[in-house]
Every structure is written in structure tokens, then in C-alpha cells.
Amino acid sequence: MRKLCPNYDREDGLETVLEVPIPDEFFASTGTNSAIICQNMHQWIKNHSMAKLATQTNVGRNAELHLLLNVVGSPLIPLQVQLEHPVHYTFKDCSIEASTAKYIVQQYIAAVGGQQALSAVHSMAIMGEVKMSASEFRPGDENVRMRGSGEIGGFVLWQKNPNLWYLELVVSGCKVSAGSDGKVTWRQLATQQSHATKGPPRPLRRFLQGLDPRATANLFSDAVCIGEKTIKNEDCFILKLDVSPTTLKARSSNNFEIIHHTIWGYFSQRSGLLIQFEDSHLVRMSARGEDIFWETSMESVIDDYRYVDAINVAHSGTTTVTLFRYGAGSANHKRRMEETWKIEEVDFNVWGLSMDSFLPPADLKREQDNEQVMG
Fold first, then answer.
1. Is 234 helix (H, G, I), strand (E, B) or coil?
2. What's the CA gap between 375 and 300, in Å, rounded?
3. How many angstroms separate the CA atoms of 127 and 159, rounded?
4. Are 209 and 317 in contact (CB under 8 A)?
5. 158 forms bridges with which residues in the sheet?
6. Residue 128 within a domain
7. Stretch 148-165: mean pLDDT, rounded?
8. Maximum separation of any 2 CA atoms in the chain, in Å
9. pTM of the model
10. Which of 16, 83, 180, 287 is at a distance of 20 to 30 A from 160, taking alpha carbons?
11. Name one Pfam family in it (predicted).
12. Which strand (E) or helix (H) includes residue 117?
């Protein structure tokens, strides 16, 4: 990963520190032509210029990248995860399935470093690279195959207790920012207005892909054990968590209803670590008196656990997403998207992370201020 942009105009000029590091594959694909490298670097750093220079062809490509960044790069989990308090378990009046799940989560906490190590974490910073690809929409009964070699990119992610986090992800010159200031969760593409999500702050799904063991332990503390399954030659316990109807209703609107959202975690019986993370949700959208349903299934295979400051963190993995659209006003279509990621750096208890690091975009901040004045 490159963190500095060379000065191609002046050999003795200072290098520019990149907001989002760029994978080394980017330089390999551009060759040694300094003019091409400079042009592509400007596309990464000043990605808003793409909208001004876009032709009809790359408008479609930008829409494709926007979909990848929204669905694969920055999805949220519809539950609050309390990180400022250690996980406590009460086995009294629990079903066998619930008490078994609590025991499995206790084993997981021990496998990732123990409660004392996790409780000592107050903030974290992560830098990594990604590669994303997608298929075209196909009729529901056809096989879905990926197309092209994929788009490469990088991301940086900060987190601080409680409910503060910020993500910047750049893929092939297209950027998405997302974050939570403890009151509202938001997302913004480089060429579009920011969008705030309904309800209380939510965690980024990327945290649950082995990056934040505290979040994983808290998330599955109320799960139930529903059986066993072999994943990657590992015998695993399956923990399941259904999001409550009350929570789903709070995040729905008149034309947008989340019917269900279910989360599964596959924990190794041998090591206690999280091997696979899945979630699936069904959304009903109403338009012109017709209902269209979108079913999204996400599966993350987690790998390469390494200790960082006494905490066992996953450093690579693959997420596969399947979108299935159907309804009276829509032909049945499905699409497959995929992301592979690799973590370059992880640091805990980062100094200097103030509230300024988690401020929402200016337009959203003005809306918040206006609402407070009106209230």
C-alpha cells in the first residue's frame, strides 16, 4: 500500500500524503509512464472531477462502482453494539440454545485475547486494500458469473467508544465516506449529497468481519445456537440472531419496509474463532401501487488471524453478496458481487482521535443544527 503520492511535476517537490492509501497493484497496472500515473493519481485524489468529465460510458461505470461501494463496501448492521461495557452473561432463565450460545461467545472472547485485553481497547485505526467485482443482472433461474478482473481500492477506518466510527473507501477513483458521530449514522458518495440512516447509530458490517472482536462478542451475546456445520474443514457451532420486529419497524418508512434481517456466526469448535459471518435481509419497496422485493444475502469467510497488542484480529477474507429482486412489478433477477480484502495495519488505542475525526458532512450537520433549533 502506498501512503504517499510522488510529485511528478517536480522531482525535488514534496510528496503528498494520501487520505486513503493506494494498493501497489495500481502502480503495476499504470506502467512507468509518468503522465498516465499522474493522471490516474489525480483521479484517485480528486475523484469528484470524474463527474465533470464523464461520458455516457463511464457514467454507467460510476453507477456500477456506486452500487459496489454502497452494498459491499459500507453496509450497516441494524443493531446497536455497546462497546464501552464488557460482556456480562446471565445463564439464569435461559433456554438451552441461548445458554449454549453464551458459552460459545465466552470461548470466543478467550480465543481473541480475553476480556481484560478487549476491555482495555478504547479506539482503533485500520488500513487495508480491497478488490471488488460484480456480475450483470440475470434471470432468477440462471447461473450468475462474475465479469472482468475486478476493481482495486483501499480504505481507512477509525473507531472510538462509544458509537464513533469513520470510513473512507476509494475504489478505482470512486469514493464513499461513512460514519457515526454517536447520534446519527450517515453515508456519502463523492458526487452526491450525504444520507442519514433512520434510528440510533449502527455499526459498520466491516467491523464484524474479524476486525473488532469486542463488537462480535457483544453482537452475538443474545444469539442462540442452532446446530453445527463444517466450514473450510473446521467443525463450527452456528449462532443465529434475528433482529426484532420493533427494531426493523423503526428503520422502515411508508414506502420502504424491512421484513426480516437475520445474522449467523460460525465459530470454530477447535480454536473458538469466528470463521464465517453471514446476514440476510428482505426489503419491500412500494412504488406506484406495486411492491418490489429485494433480498440481500452476504457471506464473509474470515481468515489469517494475527495478534496485535494481545488481540487476535483477522487480516484477510472474502465477502460474497447475492441480490435477488422479484415482485409483481418486476421480473425475477439476481446479481452477485464479491469483495476480497487484506488488512495492512491495525492499531489500538490511537492518540489524537477527537470528535473532529467523526464529524458528519457539512450539509448533514446543518440539518442537525436546524432540527435542534426548531426543537
1. strand
2. 42
3. 12
4. yes
5. 125, 166
6. yes
7. 89
8. 71
9. 0.84
10. 16
11. DUF620
12. helix 115-119
Distance CA 73, CA 154 (A): 10
Chain Cα centroid distance, residue 170: 13
Q: Which three cell numbers stand for residue 32?
A: 512507468
Beta strands in 232-289 (DSSP E): 234-242, 256-268, 274-287
Query: First-to-last CA distance in the chain?
Result: 47
Distance from C-alpha of 199 to C-alpha of 248, rounded to nearest angstrom: 10
Number of domains, the chain: 1
Domain harbouring 198, CATH code: 2.50.20
Confidence of residue 88 (pLDDT cuts 50, 70, 90): low
- What is the rounded CA–CA span in Å between residue 174 and residue 62? 7
Would you give the distance in Å from CA 218 to the centre of its chain? 17
Q: Which domain holds residue 239?
A: 69-352
Alpha carbon 228 to chain centroid distance? 26
Q: Mean pLDDT across the stretch 201-205?
A: 91
The verdict on residue 143 lying in a domain is yes
265 assigned to some structural domain: yes
Pick 352 or 265 by higher pLDDT: 265
* Tens-digit pLDDT profile for residues 248-276: 988 888 888 999 999 999 999 999 999 99
* Residues, the chain: 375
Gap between the Cα atoms of 51 and 193, Å rounded: 14
Name beta bridge partners: 337: 134, 321
